[in-house]
Design goal:
elongated, alpha/beta, 7-stranded mixed sheet, 323 residues, Methionyl-tRNA Fmet Formyltransferase, Chain A, domain 2
């Protein structure tokens, strides 16, 4: 079977690796062009590009996939199947109809739940007990095509989006290599998605990571887990932006203090922060331009005490930030 693989981030690498290791070597690999990343704007190739070069696979990185010349090149490859995993481009009809077995996509949710770009994060934010991966045939509408196969997995307590995505990448890779032979043999019965059960997971932006201490303790903890590693969660301590790397739910008891108030700072113990209702223990943080550190060390270094507050906006030096 002549497979064209299209993917970009680290999530897509296990599928490409598993295809090659099981003899389903793609005739070509497509990925996004290199992009500048980080504060230094260093141009970095996508992880899929690195894996393709390591394995000596033909690699293409068009800025625009559906220009005539690129479509003609794809047609010349005579693909039986185009498989995408987080490639990041929209397909039009000509491309969707090109391969004999169609265009398939691997999506990290149990469709029709969480169509869109942030399904892993949304599952954690909602407190779902389980999630999974879906292999489906692509249509013009985003993530709406008939389902070929799914696999389910529990979301572990305390699991971050980064850890869960890595597990789903491996689960998805196994699903793909198990499903493709069945597709070729005509043994699969695709099932349409129920549009009434569909939900959406739109793209995240950096400002989504601003912590709202007015949320219940359990939800604050979910936000921190869901946005690790990106976009990350943050708050402000006086005029300093502070990344919140890890918290732990203490209780959900209502308190007559402002959300974000430091309740208790015991020697060697994580400081407690008031939520609404409840409290969380501030386990690890990273102030701007500093290394990551334990919550207690942060409070000592900033000379914070019970009654000081973490806020949604910086406060100018000399301005009170006590509840």
């Amino acid at each position: 079977m002549r497979i064209v693989f299209m993917g970009t981030p680290r999530f897509a690498v296990p599928t490409l690796t598993r295809l090659c290791d099981t003899g389903l070597v793609p005739v070509a690999v497509y990925t996004q062009p290199p992009r500048p990343v980080g504060r230094g704007l260093r141009v970095v190739p996508p992880p899929v590009a690195g894996e393709a070069r390591l394995r000596g696979l033909p690699l293409r990185q068009p800025e625009v996939l559906q220009r005539r010349a690129e479509l003609e090149h794809l047609a010349d490859l005579r693909p039986d199947l185009i498989l995408t995993v987080a490639y990041g481009k929209i397909f039009r009809r000509r491309l969707l109809e090109m391969p004999r077995y169609g265009c398939l996509n691997l999506h990290p949710s149990l469709l029709p739940q969480y169509r869109g770009l942030s399904p892993v994060q949304r599952a954690i934010l909602r407190g779902d007990p389980e999630t999974g991966v879906t292999l489906y045939r692509m249509v013009a509408a985003v993530d709406a095509g008939p389902i070929l196969a799914q696999r389910v997995t529990a979301i572990e307590p305390g699991e971050t989006a980064g850890v869960l995505a890595a597990r789903l990448a491996q689960l998805g890779a196994a699903l793909v290599v198990a499903t493709l032979p069945e597709l070729v043999k005509g043994r699969l019965k695709p099932r349409d998605q129920d549009p009434e059960r569909a939900s959406f997971a739109p793209r995240l932006c950096r400002t989504d990571g601003l912590l709202d201490w007015r949320l219940p303790a359990r939800q604050v903890a979910r936000v921190v887990r869901a946005f690790d590693p990106w976009p990350g969660t943050y708050t402000f301590c006086k005029n300093v932006r502070v990344k919140v790397l890890a918290v732990e739910v203490v209780d959900e008891t209502p308190r007559d203090v402002a959300p974000g108030t430091l309740l208790e700072i015991g020697k060697g113990r994580p400081p407690l922060v008031a939520t609404q209702p409840g409290a969380v223990a501030l386990l690890r943080v990273q102030p701007a331009s500093c290394q990551a550190q334990e919550g207690y060390a942060f409070c000592c270094g900033r000379r914070l005490s019970a009654g000081d507050r973490l806020t949604a906006h910086p406060t100018a030096p000399g301005t009170a930030s006590r509840g």
